[in-house]
Amino acid sequence: MALLEKLTEPGSLEPVNAAVFSLDDADCVAVAQAASAGIAQLEAVRFRAIAQLNRHRDSARSVTQEVALELSLVDNHAGAMVAAADVLTTRLPRTLGLMDQGKLAGFSAMKVAAATAWLSDENALAVDALLEDRLPDKNPDQIRKAANHAANTIDPDGADRRAEHHRDGRRLTLRQGETGVASIEVEDGPVEKVTAAYRRIDREARALKTGGETRTLDQLRADVALDLLLGSTGGTSERAEVFLYMDLDTYLALNDDPAELAGHGHIPAALARHIATGPNTVLRRIITDPLSGQVLDLGRDRYRPTAGLDEFVRVRDRECRRPGCHRVAQACDLDHTLPWQHGGHTNADDLIALCRRDHRLKDEPDWTYTLASDGTLTITTPTGQTHDSTPPPLHQPRPHTAEEPPPF
User: Fold this and answer.
1) What is the pTM of this model?
2) Of 68-72, 272-276, 378-382, 386-390, where does mean pLDDT reach its minimum?
3) Residue 230: helix, strand or coil by DSSP?
4) Cβ distance 359 to 351 under 8 Å?
5) Collapsing DSSP states into helix, strand and coil, what is residue 369?
6) Other CB atoms closer than 10 Å to residue 68's CB: what's the count?
7) How confident is the model at residue 343, as a pLDDT?
8) N or C: which end of the chain has fewer CB within 10 A?
9) Number of other CB atoms surrounding residue 210 within 10 Å
10) Helical (H) or strand (E) element with 298
11) Using one digit for the tens of pLDDT, what is the confidence trace for 293-346?
């Protein structure tokens, strides 16, 4: 079909996109398959390029952050891509070859890389050969299971090592979801502890499911789990401090401008007022410059003592200042953009919030951090690419009028 041939031609895809609207069902499926094959081939090229970059840098930790910045990825996914690129170009050449043929997507190839990570080079190559004819036309979950089975077949004595490897990788992750919700997950926890924890949560949730309870069992399990993590039981919320950025008019319900919850993003005004006025929430008064929307000061009436400058910088920055990193500033380090031994000052004009990983990245060779007078942080990577980061204003800057006196 002529349209399929155009998918592999260089240049603009506008004629292809326009022609799609004239296709019948069978041709739509054929074009989608052809496009997927082309994407897989390009992903193979991307893996090779990332692997080469990693070799040039001697597998430095900073490669993950550079890939995350340049490809606009979150760090976890960038790290998985770097690891998969190294494995696919060394230990899994047949799997990479399937991508070259358009028979295997990059996401599926990463499943094979993860399933063979614990194997020796020799055994990984054997699994790669065993899987070559089994992977095409399989979905990612089928591929994961096939790769795990092949790994166990090639190295049955390594099951204990594999279990230990996975259990050593346990971690707690926070994933921001849609407006007003987020997820917390214990990944790769010991199966006996995770199972016991779920049974306890389920038991307590079912005990709360009385005649007058309107929450579903799923909602009760979620509420009980969060209550247990916060040290309370029976659906009673723990007193918690949240950093909620909202202007006074929104708080007073004079407008419905969205507010911002640190680490999560924007939330609707009604939800912001619900959180801010909750009986177990500590409300922070955050004052902004009406002209720029930037934080000027924060209220000192709060549940725990303040930490002065340290606290101000964290409230101002909200998150780690490296573009793309959303670790909340309260969990970050504070660092001088200009080292104090080289003339830097310990004040709000020189301090920024950086998560521990990005704090270390700043000290890697050929990474440069420059802070401008307006608060814009410019990060220059070893390849000379620049990325800017500015603390977002709480509201859109409002122009000063002649009738309106200056705010300060």
Assistant:
1) 0.67
2) 272-276
3) coil
4) no
5) strand
6) 22
7) 41
8) C
9) 6
10) strand 295-298
11) 555 555 444 333 235 667 777 777 888 888 888 888 878 888 776 554 444 444
Q: Token match 């399929």: residue? A: 4
How are beta strands 281-282 and 240-241 bridged, if at all? parallel
**Predicted pLDDT of residue 222:** 92
Residues 6+ apart with CB under 8 A from 179: 265, 266, 267, 268, 271
Integer Cα distance of 87 and 84 in angstroms: 5
Closest by Cα among 396, 388, 371 to 289? 396
DSSP class of residue 319 equals B
Residue 56 carries which side chain, given as an amino acid letter? H
Phi (first) and psi of residue 3, to 5 degrees: -65, -35
Token couple for 386: 């620049």
Angle at 269 (CA atoms; ends 265, 270), nearest 5 degrees: 120
DSSP assigned state of 364 = S
For residue 183, the Cα-to-chain-centroid distance in whole angstroms is 12
3-state secondary structure of 1: coil
pLDDT above 90 as % of the chain: 28
In this predicted model, what pLDDT tens digit does every residue of 89-139 receive, in sequence order?
Answer: 999 999 999 999 999 999 999 999 999 988 999 999 999 999 999 999 999
- Of the two residues 276 and 44, the one the predictor is more confident about is 44
What residues have CB less than 8 Å from 268, skipping those under 6 apart? 179, 180, 256, 258
Contact between residue 154 and residue 127 where contact means Cβ atoms under 8 Å apart: yes
**Residue 260 forms beta bridges with which residues?**
245, 266
Give the DSSP per-residue string, 241-297: E--EE--HHHHTTS----EEETTTEEE-HHHHHHHHT-TTEE---EEE-TTT--EEE
Quick check: helix, strand or coil at residue 325?
coil
Of 348, 354, 351, nearest to 324 by C-alpha is: 354
